[in-house]
């Protein structure tokens, strides 16, 4: 193991010498093709980038303020629930969503249990 470490240390100290380094660089640079992008592609990229920036700015501007028409139409009292079991009388929409989702989950569990029961029962 020490031989390998010694060899690696010696190699680290030596810089490689390439004969004709300038000629090698020139031949590599000559081999690279310069592709020209059509003008319409450049214009399309520019226009779509500008449109994206405008859309982001509008999104930030619109979300930063309260819409006047919706603010006046919004009820002052909380939403009351109809036909939701175990719900408070005045709940937020998130609570209503959670209650409904839980009811759906329980209903699906009951349906799965019924299917398993009927499948296991032999007529």
Rough outline: extended
Strand content: under 5%
* Cα separation of the termini: 76 Å
What does the main sheet amount to?
2 strands, antiparallel
Portion of residues within helices: 55-70%
Write the element-wise H/E pattern from the N-terminal end onward.
Answer: HHHHEEH
Whole-number radius of gyration? 36 Å
Mean pLDDT: 80
Kindly state the number of beta strands: 2
The helix tally amounts to 5
Q: How do the strands line up in the largest sheet? A: 1-2
Helix/strand-derived category reads mainly alpha
Low-confidence stretches: none
Explain this structure.
The structure is a single chain. The protein is built from five helices and two strands, in the order ααααββα. It has helices at about 1-15, 20-30, 40-65, 70-75, 95-120; strands spanning about 80, 90. It has a two-stranded antiparallel sheet.
Please write out the topology.
Elements (H helix, E strand, L loop, with lengths): L1 H12 L7 H11 L7 H25 L4 H6 L5 E2 L9 E2 L1 H28 L3
Antiparallel strand pairs: 1-2
Name the descriptors.
two-stranded antiparallel ribbon; about 65% helix; 2 strands; about 120 residues; about 5% strand; mainly alpha
The gist of it:
The protein is mainly alpha-helical and 123 residues long. 67% of the residues lie in helices and 3% in strands.
